[in-house]
């Protein structure tokens, strides 16, 4: 079978590691209608396993503290294996499970900075691999995910990876050399929005609002604006102009932002995030 036509026979999806990002993917997958009985997760501690079983009834969760071979047992015969440990542990995890993977199992990494080349060097020759850059709004069905095919992943493998995420967000296919940019815009992007909400709430307090009220207003405003942006065909520039009346209060605020160079500051922050991702890739290679 070739990478273009091979499709794993098993319907199981396995999450190796279930921290915040992998749990976000898991939650989105289940919210999209996947049968929880076809999903397995592995974690380090039995306490975390019990927590996940309680949160997702019917989910099979194996704890390494109870079985040192939890990861290798979990991946046997799986259709998809999602790598969700910290970036520094991805290569070791690939080596750990390499002997238990079926040749047509599609491996999907959600770890930042770990390149296709680094993972393929630790996996069996010819193993289909897809590198992804998701973000945490997958938990609420509003995720944004960039995916890139590895050397041996073809159309069918990319389709499986898209299906993994598409029930809970927007998926785009990009060349691997653009994933750092995706990370800078959407991977880190939720933190930028939260940072903005923090700043808005603090500004409200400075203007005399009670802290709880200022936070509630800032939170709902950012969430509401995000919902408007999520509508089909929404254009952020057009939405901004629609609430910026000539000589009005909003126009005055935007003028101050422009004078302070806020767009350039945001661009510089995104560049710093992308540069850091590239640096981490070299360090972890």
TrEMBL record:
Pathway in which the depicted protein is active: Amino-acid biosynthesis; L-proline biosynthesis; L-proline from L-glutamate 5-semialdehyde: step 1/1
Domain named Pyrroline-5-carboxylate reductase catalytic N-terminal: residues: 14-112
Reaction catalysis annotation: L-proline + NADP(+) = (S)-1-pyrroline-5-carboxylate + NADPH + 2 H(+); L-proline + NAD(+) = (S)-1-pyrroline-5-carboxylate + NADH + 2 H(+)
Domain named Pyrroline-5-carboxylate reductase dimerisation: residues: 176-280
One example of a Gene Ontology biological process annotation: L-proline biosynthetic process
Matches recorded under SUPFAM superfamilies: 6-phosphogluconate dehydrogenase C-terminal domain-like, NAD(P)-binding Rossmann-fold domains
Protein name, per record: Pyrroline-5-carboxylate reductase
Name of the gene this protein is made from: proC
């Amino acid at each position: 079978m070739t990478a273009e036509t091979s499709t794993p026979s098993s319907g199981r999806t396995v999450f190796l590691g279930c921290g915040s990002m992998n749990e976000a993917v898991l939650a989105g997958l289940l919210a999209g209608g996947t049968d929880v009985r076809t999903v397995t997760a592995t974690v380090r501690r039995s306490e975390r396993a019990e927590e996940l079983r309680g949160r997702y009834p019917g989910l099979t969760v194996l704890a390494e503290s109870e079985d040192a071979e939890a990861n290798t047992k979990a991946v046997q015969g799986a259709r998809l294996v999602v790598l969700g440990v910290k970036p520094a542990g991805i290569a070791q995890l690939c080596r750990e499970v390499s002997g238990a993977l079926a040749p047509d199992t599609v491996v999907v990494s959600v770890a930042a900075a770990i390149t296709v080349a680094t993972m393929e060097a630790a996996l069996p020759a010819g193993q289909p691999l897809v590198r992804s850059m998701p973000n945490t709004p997958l938990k609420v069905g509003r995720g944004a995910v960039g995916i890139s095919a590895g050397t041996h992943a073809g159309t069918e493998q990319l389709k499986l990876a898209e299906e993994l995420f598409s029930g809970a967000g927007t998926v785009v296919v990009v060349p691997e050399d653009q994933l750092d940019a995706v990370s800078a815009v959407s991977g880190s992007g939720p933190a930028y929005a939260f940072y903005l909400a923090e700043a808005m709430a603090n500004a409200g307090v400075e203007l005399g609002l009670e802290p709880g009220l200022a936070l509630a207003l800032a939170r709902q405003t950012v969430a509401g604006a995000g919902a408007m942006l999520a509508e089909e065909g929404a254009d952020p520039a057009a939405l901004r102009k629609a609430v910026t009346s000539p000589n009005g209060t909003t126009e005055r605020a935007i003028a101050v932002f422009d004078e302070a160079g806020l767009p350039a500051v945001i661009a510089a922050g995104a560049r710093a995030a992308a540069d850091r991702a590239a640096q981490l890739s070299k360090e972890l290679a």
